Amino acid sequence: MMLRRGFVLFLPRLVGLLVVACCSMSIVYMLACTPKGDNQQLAFPRVHSPTAKEGYEAILQEREEQHRNYIISLKKQIAQLKAELQGRTEQLKNMQNQYPDSLDIELDHSKPEKVQANLLAFLRSQVDKAEVHSGVKLSTEYAAVPFESFTLQKVYQLETGLTRHPEEKPVRKDKRDELIEVIELAVGSLNKPEGVSKAKPRVYTASDFVEGIYRTEKNKGTLYELTFKGDAKHQFKKIVLFRPFGPVMKVKNENVNMADTLINVIVPLAKRASKFRQFMQNFREMGIQQDGRIHLTVVYFGKEQMNEVKSILENTSKSANFKNFTFIQLNEEFSRGKGLDVGARFWKGNNVVLFFCDVDIYFTAEFLNSCRLNTQPGKKVFYPVLFSQYNPSIIYGHHDSIPSLEQQLIIKKETGFWRDFGFGMTCQYRSDFINIGGFDLDIKGWGGEDVHLYRKYLHSNLMVIRTPVRGLFHLWHEKQCLDELTPEQYKMCMQSKAMNEASHGQLGMLVFKQEIETHLHRQKLSSKKT
């Protein structure tokens, strides 16, 4: 009923807009045909000029011809608008007549046959609206929805991110199951006899599949085109399938009150006092001043620079009148997983949202709300994909000075990348963290502990919310590749370092810097000679 009312409301609006467009064109037409005022008179030749009469006639004839052509053009545009208006009106009327109740797909169990018929009609209309039988006019070259191709073993994809490859096996279960289902359906369709034939029909199998392409239009469905081997060497069978998307259905409507939802930000730390000072500036502005429903737990390893870190924490506490913090000191080798685990278990209050954070992270108050909204005890944990900053000295190397940190935090391909291979920043309720078993404390140093916890959640019945967020940034810092690493580890470390330094284009400019400077020098010499 909701969609039907939408059509009824939308139709008069569309008609009104097109009528206004027609009226506007008519006004333009009248204005164009109105004689010019005194201030816009043509520059006629002088009366006493020997060619005065011929000049008048030539100018008047030229102006008359221009008016005639312009009037013809306006009439054509008006006719096109009227035809488009009539076509759109008839199209909407036909859809309303054809599917009077098909868009009202509610679960009315008293009339199951009608619901099924309406749903089927709607799904068929999705095929007609999608680019299946014919193309549609697009505004720019970027508006086209690209296809991705696949074979029995591989998927060839455009949107690769940083962890996916241009060519890879479909590792995600939903994508693997989807493509298997499509191939099986196509094979079944090929093996259904068409008409009556005395010849023994050929039996197709998945091994006859050559390749396929598919693309998804988000509001219509997924189109698949599959090619199979034919009966002869250069013959093929092509099957076109379409998985239509059904109408949008309301699943839940609820009020969410986060006024009393506290977030405990847990930061493991060893040394790095200067980075901690920068982190506390961000924490004070976003966490204390703007959000206010926050607790900070710092788990510090060792004693070097500890007094400086404690002093920064205490100064912030005094200046901002902030008492919701905990400082835990461990006399042992740094372990990120151990620090986070100790910080989470140290909390003795009510169930709280835990935000596992690092000292080189910048977050906004909006992110803290996203952290609350995407976690639910016993149901949901939040794994945001943060935006990782490139080396500012490379990005802004051609500028007079590097902008302030706040000005650097913009999401563009020249300034950073979505760190979709990282799982260290996460929000979850403490009860879920304890029930899942916490971190693997056998993992020392940095790395590995976050993936292990992430896999625990994936293997549980909890829903993992994984999405890029605009309010969480990884600040650039120099990556050190130690001499103690094996050649293979060192190579991987350097590749990771390059990925974090700059974009592909910016690194290319550094590689070809000498060639560019040589070219500019030659251009300068050439301009001096001329």
Automatic annotation (TrEMBL):
E.C. code: 2.4.1.-
GO MF annotation: an example: glucuronosyl-N-acetylgalactosaminyl-proteoglycan 4-beta-N-acetylgalactosaminyltransferase activity
Record membrane topology: Single-pass type II membrane protein
Subcellular location: Golgi apparatus, Golgi stack membrane
Coiled coil: 64-98
InterPro entries: Chond_GalNAc (IPR008428), CS_glycosyltransferase (IPR051227), Nucleotide-diphossugar_trans (IPR029044)
GO BP annotations listed: chondroitin sulfate proteoglycan biosynthetic process
Key words of the record: Coiled coil, Glycoprotein, Golgi apparatus, Membrane, Metal-binding, Signal-anchor, Transferase, Transmembrane, Transmembrane helix
Main location: Golgi
Annotated Gene Ontology cellular component terms: Golgi cisterna membrane
Origin species: Promerops cafer (Cape sugarbird)
Protein name: Hexosyltransferase
Lineage: Eukaryota, Metazoa, Chordata, Craniata, Vertebrata
Gene3D superfamilies the UniProt entry points to: Spore Coat Polysaccharide Biosynthesis Protein SpsA, Chain A (3.90.550.10)
Family label: Belongs to the chondroitin N-acetylgalactosaminyltransferase family.
Encoding gene per record: Csgalnact1
Catalytic activity annotation: 3-O-(beta-D-GlcA-(1->3)-beta-D-Gal-(1->3)-beta-D-Gal-(1->4)-beta-D-Xyl)-L-seryl-[protein] + UDP-N-acetyl-alpha-D-galactosamine = 3-O-(beta-D-GalNAc-(1->4)-beta-D-GlcA-(1->3)-beta-D-Gal-(1->3)-beta-D-Gal-(1->4)-beta-D-Xyl)-L-seryl-[protein] + UDP + H(+)
SUPFAM superfamilies (alphabetical): Nucleotide-diphospho-sugar transferases (SSF53448)
Residues spanning the membrane: 7-32
